[in-house]
Amino acid sequence: MIKILCVGKIKEKYLVDLINDYYKRIQKYHKITIVELKDNPIYEKEIAGLKEKINPADYNIALDIKGKKLDSEKFAKKINDTLMINSNITFIIGGSLGLDAEIKNMCEDIISFSDFTFPHGLFRGILLEQIYRAFKINNNETYHK
User: Fold this and answer.
1) What is the distance between the alpha carbons of residues 33 and 13, in angstroms, rounded to a whole number?
2) Which run of H or of E encompasses 81?
């Protein structure tokens, strides 16, 4: 299973529609779930909530601006190779203050999608689109470039 662990609920309809569209597309290939944690104005409580939901048996990937960058093909290979050895991948998206070092240390990998900072809802959509693209690549199916 692929799990996306994230902080905050998406309120904007256009982002909800984007997220739901790619969520449904991914279901054709693999089970996926999104776990939304409530925003907490106290950073330490937000981080504690994330830590409680991280399963050490999963292959955990922190999404952080300072992580390593992959292109779509390498990201697809990462997903494919990981699912061969671990049936669960968890992508972790922090709140507006990001992820602390302790959470990053709980992860097997830290990936960055860009040097840009994205709104959380938009980034969630981008992550889902890239997961969908990865399954299309891994199944040798055409998809726009």
Assistant:
1) 19
2) helix 72-85
The SS3 of residue 48 is helix
Verdict on whether the full-model pTM lies above 0.90: yes
Closest CA to 20 of 6, 8, 5, 32: 32
Is the CB of residue 80 less than 8 Å from the CB of residue 110? no
* Residue linked to tokens 């597309």: 25
Task: Convert the pLDDT of each residue in 22-67 to its tens digit.
Answer: 999 999 999 999 999 998 889 999 999 999 999 999 999 999 999 9
Q: Alpha carbon of 34 to those of 7, 90, 139: distances in Å?
A: 10, 10, 23
Residue-range domains of the chain with CATH: 2-138 (3.40.1280.10)
- Angle between helix 120-138 and 72-85 (nearest 10): 70
Per-residue confidence (pLDDT) for residue 96, from 0 to 100: 85
Average pLDDT (58-82) is 97
